[in-house]
Amino acid sequence: MDYCRSVLAVAGANFRRLKRDARVWFIFVFTALLIHYYLRPVINYGIDTGTKAPIYIMELLFCSATISVKAPKILFYIGMLCLLCDAPFFYPLKPYIIMRSKRTAWCVGECIYIVGMALLYAAFILIVSSLMILPIGTMRDSFSGALTDMVLGTGKMPLGEIANIYPSAQFSSEMIRYLYPSGAMMYTFVSVWVSFSILGLFMYWVSLIRRNVVCGMAIAGALVFLDPILVWAAWPNNYWILAFSPVSWTSVEQLNIMAANHFISIPFVIAADALLVIFLFILILHTAKRISLNGFLTEEA
């Protein structure tokens, strides 16, 4: 029981710091503005034509693209890394927390904080995107309406004309044609949460080893920007290479339910996510028990 309290105390201390951290508030505000920017064409089209769109909209923000700036999910991943850019979270009171909680509880508490922060950020994207689509939102579990028009065109307005008047992010036409929005959103939310956690844990582990917060951020950022390169290299018959990027697993259109030649499946994502999270937890525990903290404490002093 004391161990659980120590773990929760470590995680809670990190969360309490967020209220006074302007960096965190800026990232959340900037993320909300990004969501508005990417959904605004859909909302404007729906208002102008009187068509609807489902409120289950998060999956549209995590579609793949071969150009980083055309993929909103890349910016969201960078936002997540910026939220954890102070890993391994040393601040003036941290030495006393480590002394009282012991290393194992401290380390587990930090990991729980990372997973909790990933959940908070993923939930924020989900809630804000659903709220912003409300002016044309519907509970109907179908993409038919504004999104179908913007992807396939209409009899009155061809696709090219819609694209010129309402330029939008790159949406997957296959996803909009064949999937239910609620199911796609549930998969996206869970996979985004876990992939955020994986990158955060990896960045934390690298920062512990290198004793350098910049090093962990740089390597994790490189993994994020690897996704558009892999998406480009995967077409047309090399989709198996997307298995090497957890960032790619969050895009529903990359699943094998969308095309027979796609490699990634839901069972694969579940197994790979679970193995990576467990493996990173073990690595972090092993590293934290053996690493000297003097370098970190000296830097903070």
UniProtKB/TrEMBL annotation:
Keywords: Membrane, Transmembrane, Transmembrane helix. The chain crosses the membrane at residues 22-39, 74-91, 112-134, 184-206, 213-235, 255-285. It comes from the Bacteria. The keyword Transmembrane applies. This is Uncharacterized protein.
